[in-house]
Amino acid sequence: LLMEKETSAANLNPATIRKIRSSHPENRMAKHFDDKYFESLSAKDQARLLLCCKSGVDNPDSGMGLYAMNPTDYDDFKPYFDKVIRDYHGITGELKHINNWDISTVKDLPKGGKLDLAVIGLGNTSMRVRVGRNLKDFPLPGNMTQEDRVSLEKRMISAFECLMKDPEFGGTYNTLTPGNKYSIDEFQYQELVDEHIMFKDMSVDPYLLSAGISAHWPYGRGCYVSRDRGFIVWVGEEDHLRIMCMKKGTIINEVFDRLHKCLAVIEAQPGCVFAKSPDYGYVTSCPTNLGSGMRASLHLQLPALTKKGSDVSDAKAVAKSFGLSVRGAGGEHTAAGTDGTVDISPSARLCIQEADIVAALYQGSLKLRTKENLVRWCPNFPPH
């Protein structure tokens, strides 16, 4: 292991990055790396920037290959990060993220802004809205020590204990940190993973491992779960916090509005101020999630577009034309259900307001349902 670390450190230099730029032009870390800019930095800042690049060096096939290590990295290294961010998010011109949860500001929605899936023919549907957040006075996960991780978790436990005393929230905290009063065993952990409440072992992910994000597993990893199991906070995953609300129903506003309220409650707790960038919005470890840090999703049955779950390529192509992404029913890197159930969500995160994201989920669901019905009842109709 020591030899592997030494080898990795020896390769972490501009010369290696130039080779990756040539061999893997899709690697954005290497594509936008500027030697002149790098040479203009102090030795200390050069080391900081190379640490951000490490995952993309160790994994040349990365599409991004770049992770922020501190809440200020996006602004401290803006000449470099800005090029990567614009490339990934497809942004030209002014880049100034604005956060806005007021759905009444969105045009062309049903009266009163009520996003009711029953109107488009759906019954009880699995709906989830989550955001990534990081506390401003800790390093980001890729640059944390084991002590940092445990200290952050202790701070969050104090916040969660306030929620546990509140009848509106209740619930409990579950941690993988050994010796904690909220510690759970391997069997309990696997039960939570199987229920899609807790995240999987990150230490097996080569990208997160290279970035340092999954280091010190399982210390500082856990999740708060409300009494009704509809409000969940992951601690110690790719970001300090992944905060989410979920339920089965038809009115998307219910999970969206609850999450907005829960975020305000958490940030009101002592020491729980979220990191933000003046231009990029909420800071996340990976540039792909910057801005809103939000993913709003629901499960949708698309048996015709997925060939009854056997092939999601048509569903992905159609969804992409509507600005949506498609995942398997169990999340990223999982298959569609045999009934064609997939998880859909708007793709945009940056320079799109939270209200627009949840509206895009509703409007995109309607468009996908319409396309699904056309393909189902007109076999010769081209899927895309």
- Let me know the number of strands: 10
Average pLDDT, to the nearest integer?
A: 93
Main sheet characteristics: 8 strands, antiparallel
Structural class: alpha+beta
Strand order of the largest sheet: 2-3-4-5-1-8-10-9
Low-confidence stretches: 1-7
* Strand fraction: 5-15%
Order of helices and strands: HHHHHHHEHEHHEEEHEEEHEEH
Give structural notes:
With 384 residues, the chain is of the alpha+beta class. The protein is 38% helix and 14% strand. It contains 13 helices and 10 strands. It has an 8-stranded antiparallel β-sheet with strand order 2-3-4-5-1-8-10-9.
Secondary structure topology:
Blueprint (H helix, E strand, L loop, with lengths): L1 H10 L2 H10 L4 H4 L3 H6 L2 H16 L14 H4 L1 H12 L35 E9 L12 H20 L6 E4 L10 H9 L11 H5 L11 E4 L5 E5 L5 E9 L2 H16 L8 E2 L3 E2 L11 E8 L11 H9 L2 E5 L12 E6 L7 H24 L7
Antiparallel strand pairs: 1-5, 1-8, 2-3, 3-4, 4-5, 6-7, 8-10, 9-10
Question: What is the compact description of this entry?
Answer:
The chain is an alpha+beta fold and 384 residues long. 38% of the residues lie in helices and 14% in strands.
Key features of this structure:
384 residues; alpha+beta; 13 helices; disordered N terminus
